[in-house]
């Protein structure tokens, strides 16, 4: 028999199936996310500690840390550490928060906030863009002005590289399609915000409701950071809505319609709603209602709720009474949601509770002594709208850090602004 016949028959390895590739990709994404969030929460932190915190193997941690370092998301810390003070020193890793930013856009009723946030969710730059007087400014104008505002902020920070843009607003926002489905107070319907902002900036754009965005911000950068238990966020501005998260997942529901609480009935409410009923949550608690009542009482002459806060700080008893009444009604709403969802904690974004201890106390008193300690104000009292917008993009980054590879060298396009 010829010697060549003794050679083993070569076996061609089968390429991995699409399902296997998808599983591997999900595993890499999940592992990279766990590592980057551990660095955010604990950095500067040793790789061995990351392995213990995440349950990943030391080899996997090292591999992913090398990838994240190559992307510019983390870096070696300046200070060497020794295990128990002995042995060879190791280099801990920390976030590199000096290089990348995300753009944040928050569309409120009277104005839009544009901002740049670093990887720790800190506001690097911020600007407020007032809407035209009256209701119903065209969505195209608002979004075009927002994109121009972002371009201006980035031009003033040439050393920063933008990774993407997050847009948040009230009303019904469909995250998957990037559409503001309905914002009654703005008069907007089916506004394809993601497409518009992307066309004007050239950057990846992510869109979500502001209450959901702020839940994610609290989970990443706020008081509940690292807490996998359940949290409810109640947003009370001109728009009143809510978001609920548990085990690090925010509930969106079909077409992201969860959190629409504007027309929940509020016991003791007296305000007539556009729907024809009396005492709907948003009609009763809206800043529009608060400002109208303050004008009728002679406290202010404007539509700016911050002027009511200023009057209360100057000792105006009517302003104080209006703020305390609203805080109690917000507490009643929080109690209702606590009864339904029973979260471990409730974060409230409401002007009085954020800036005045007496309002926070009144809100908690209405919730009741057994649950009062679970209610806390937002972790971002001076930048809540900027953080809401930017956190939409930062949540995506922290869930899939490896996606930064596709935009790390991208700059803002000279779009038709």
TrEMBL record:
<comment type="similarity">
    <text>Belongs to the ROK (NagC/XylR) family.</text>
</comment>
<feature type="region of interest" description="Disordered">
    <location>
        <begin position="1"/>
        <end position="29"/>
    </location>
</feature>
<dbReference type="InterPro" id="IPR043129">
    <property type="entry name" value="ATPase_NBD"/>
</dbReference>
<dbReference type="InterPro" id="IPR036390">
    <property type="entry name" value="WH_DNA-bd_sf"/>
</dbReference>
<dbReference type="InterPro" id="IPR036388">
    <property type="entry name" value="WH-like_DNA-bd_sf"/>
</dbReference>
<protein>
    <submittedName>
        <fullName>ROK family transcriptional regulator</fullName>
    </submittedName>
</protein>
<dbReference type="Pfam" id="PF00480">
    <property type="entry name" value="ROK"/>
</dbReference>
<dbReference type="InterPro" id="IPR000600">
    <property type="entry name" value="ROK"/>
</dbReference>
């Amino acid at each position: 028999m010829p010697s060549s016949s003794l050679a083993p028959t070569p076996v061609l390895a089968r390429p991995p199936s699409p399902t296997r590739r998808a599983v591997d990709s999900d595993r890499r994404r999940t592992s990279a996310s766990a590592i980057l969030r551990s660095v955010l929460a604990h950095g500067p932190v040793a790789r061995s500690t990351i392995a213990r915190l995440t349950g990943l193997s030391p080899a996997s941690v090292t591999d992913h840390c090398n990838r994240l370092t190559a992307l510019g998301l983390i870096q070696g810390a300046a200070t060497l550490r020794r295990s128990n003070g002995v042995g060879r020193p190791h280099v801990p890793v920390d976030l590199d928060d000096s290089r990348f930013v995300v753009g944040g856009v928050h569309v409120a009723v009277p104005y839009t906030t544009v901002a740049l946030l670093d990887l720790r969710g800190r506001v690097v730059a911020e600007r407020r863009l007032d809407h035209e007087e009256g209701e119903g400014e065209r969505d195209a104008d608002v979004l075009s002005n927002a994109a121009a505002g972002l371009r201006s902020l980035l031009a003033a920070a040439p050393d920063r590289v933008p990774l993407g843009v997050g847009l948040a607003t009230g009303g019904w926002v469909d995250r998957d399609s990037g559409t503001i489905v309905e914002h009654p107070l703005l008069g907007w319907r089916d506004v394809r915000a993601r497409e518009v902002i992307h066309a004007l900036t050239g950057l990846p754009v992510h869109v979500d409701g502001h209450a959901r965005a702020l839940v994610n911000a609290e989970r990443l950068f706020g008081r509940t950071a690292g807490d996998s238990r359940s949290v409810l966020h109640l947003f009370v501005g001109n728009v009143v809505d809510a978001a609920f998260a548990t085990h690090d997942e925010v509930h969106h529901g079909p077409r992201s319609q969860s959190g629409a609480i504007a027309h929940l009935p509020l016991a003791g409410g007296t305000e007539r709603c556009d729907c024809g009923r009396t005492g709907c949550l948003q009609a009763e608690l809206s800043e529009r209602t608060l400002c109208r009542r303050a004008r009728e009482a002679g406290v202010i002459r404007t539509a700016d709720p911050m002027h009511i806060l200023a009057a209360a700080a100057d000792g105006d008893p009517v302003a104080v009474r209006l703020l305390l009444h609203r805080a109690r009604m917000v507490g009643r709403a929080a109690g209702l949601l606590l009864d339904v969802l029973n979260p471990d904690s409730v974060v409230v974004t409401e002007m009085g509770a954020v800036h005045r201890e007496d309002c926070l106390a009144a809100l908690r008193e209405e919730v009741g002594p057994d649950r009062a300690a679970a209610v806390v104000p937002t972790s971002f009292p001076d930048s809540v709208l900027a953080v809401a917008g930017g956190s939409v993009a930062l949540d995506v980054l922290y869930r899939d850090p490896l996606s930064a590879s596709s935009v790390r060298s991208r700059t803002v396009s000279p779009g038709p602004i």
